[in-house]
Amino acid sequence: MSRSTEHTVKAFDGEIVELRGLISEMGGRAEEAISGAMRALTSHDLETAARVVQDDKRIDALEDQVDRLAVQVIALRAPMADDLREVVAALKIAGVVERIGDYAKNIAKRVPEIGSGRQIEAISILPAMARAASSMVHDVLDAFAARDWEAAVEVCERDREVDDFYNSIFRTLVTFMMENPQTISQAAHLLFVAKNLERIGDHATNVAEMVYFAARGTYMAERERGPDGVRS
Fold first, then answer.
1. CATH number for the domain including 31?
2. pTM of the model
3. Domains identified in the chain, total number
4. Is 230 part of any domain?
5. How far apart are CA 232 and CA 224, in angstroms?
6. 146 lies in which domain range?
7. Given 3-state DSSP classes, what are the helix, strand and coil percentages for the chain, each rounded to the nearest 5?
8. How far does Cα 215 stand from its chain's mean position?
9. Taking the CB of residue 118, how many other CB atoms lie within 10 A of it?
C-alpha cells in the first residue's frame, strides 16, 4: 500500500469514527430529552420542559454536522460496498434521531397545557412507556455502533411492548374522558403524549432496519421485523 493510499484509508477510518461519535451524541441527547420531558410532565416542571425545548436545537445542529460530514466522505472518498452502506445509514439515522428529539420536544411543549390539577391515572403509566421507547433508542444506536444486526432485530421485536402500552393508555383515557367530560382537554393532551412515545418506538425500529442493511447488505425480512412490521 502506498503512503498516499494509507493516508486516505486512515482519513476515511477517522471520518467513520467521527460519524459514529456524532450519531452517539445525538442519541444520548435524544434519550435525555425523552427522560427530561417525562420528568417535566409528571411533576409539572415548566422549567425542565422549557429546557428540553431549548436543547433540541443542539440535536438539530448535530444532524447538520452529520449531513455535512457524510456528504464530504462520499464526495472525497468514494466509498464502496460496506463502507458506503455505513455512511448512508449514518446519514439516514441522523434524520430519524432528529425526529425522535422532536417528539420529546413536542411532549415538553404540552406540559404547560396539561396543567397540574387533578391527576389522571394514565399519567402513572406513561413513564414506563417512555422508558421502554427510550431503551429501544439506546439499544438500536448501540447496535449501529457495533454493526450488530442481531441486536437490531431484537429491538424490532420489542416494539410490540410500546404498542401495547399505547393501546392500554388510549383505552384508559377514552374511558376517562367519557366519564369525566371536564377533563377532555387534559386527557387529549396526554393522548398526544402517548402517541409521540409510540412514534419514538416506531422510529427506533426504522433505525434497526438501517442497521441491519448496513451490516448485511440485505433488507430485513418481515418475519424478522415481527408480525406488525416496521412503520415509517
1. 1.20.58.220
2. 0.88
3. 1
4. no
5. 16
6. 3-225
7. 85, 0, 15
8. 20
9. 9
